[in-house]
Amino acid sequence: MTENHNNLPFTIKLKYPKATKTPIIPKKSITLIQTTSCSPYTFPHNMRTLKKILVPTDFSDCAQNASKIAIELARFIQAEVHFFHMVEAPLNWIKLEKEKEKNFPEVKAHIASARSKIQHLIEEAQKANVNAKENLSFNESPSEILKHIESQPFDLVIMGSHGAEGWPAEMLGSNTHKVIHQASVPVFVVKALPKQLSFKKIILAYDFKKETESPAIEKILNFSVWINAKVELLFINTPMDFRDTPSIHLAMEKVKEQYSDHIKGLHIFNYFNLEEGILEFCKYHHPDLIGMITHRQKSFKRLFSGSATEYIINHSPIPVLSLNLQ
Length: 326
Known about the structure:
This protein is an alpha/beta fold. The protein has helices at 61-77, 105-127, 142-151, 174-182, 213-227, 245-258, 274-285, 306-315; strands spanning 2-3, 11-14, 32-33, 52-56, 80-86, 132-137, 156-160, 187-190, 197-198, 201-205, 230-237, 263-270, 289-295, 320-325. The protein has one domain: Rossmann fold, CATH 3.40.50.12370. It is 34% helix and 22% strand. Strands 1-2-12-11-10-13-14-8-7-4-5-6 form a 12-stranded mixed β-sheet, sandwiched between helices. A two-stranded parallel ribbon has the order 3-9. The two termini are 35 Å apart.
């Protein structure tokens, strides 16, 4: 363990042996690099491997970025991608008689355009040897995405976000906001499209409270095994929720001991508030993905506040993996 108390903020990092490296996948326009080798993880009996990825899309630039990342990730882990688009229809389009569809030319044009764009995404997926499917919904309510997530055994949702530096959390799109708070599966949120997509290091910002340990840790570890990445845990120590180093160190070591093969680093970082502390830490440690925890109940604070997750999504250039504890 190394400590630096010269200036605030400081980090306490527990160092472990470096993982061995494995061959790099041939480079493409977006390249997912396999950079670490972790010990085999024993999945719980009820845990699926990652086989189905849902990509809600409105065909905006950020949604297209999410689609490209989903295709490359699916190629890497041999998963299936479902592209999901919502069409605004004035009535129950599914039950509408065919001869009456001509009375709604704008809806027909929207459907035709959406199917054409999804077909293009499917063709891009097929070029990468990824199986992809079209999913259209005729209800634009944010809850429609959640219904679709529950309708099939999806393992991951990948979404684009318009979040930008300086925007308040409420500027996050209503669909993304709803899914982050209520989805039963991990939600991967991306803004910009990196030239090279690498998952060698995931930082999981975590509060180390007993009632949240197992579900949060196991979800992020399952994801890390799917993409063959290493996980490092992060605790942000703030004046409003200060905890002494020995007690946090002990809590972190207990978690590390429980999942010793898959947690490769522990960090305690002092900062004035939670959200800015996470962002500041990432400037120095350069993770490839930030893991955040969200909870529906307002009684949960710190990392369980949806606003904290949204703030990180809005202000971080790094993709965010949101874990919603049910």
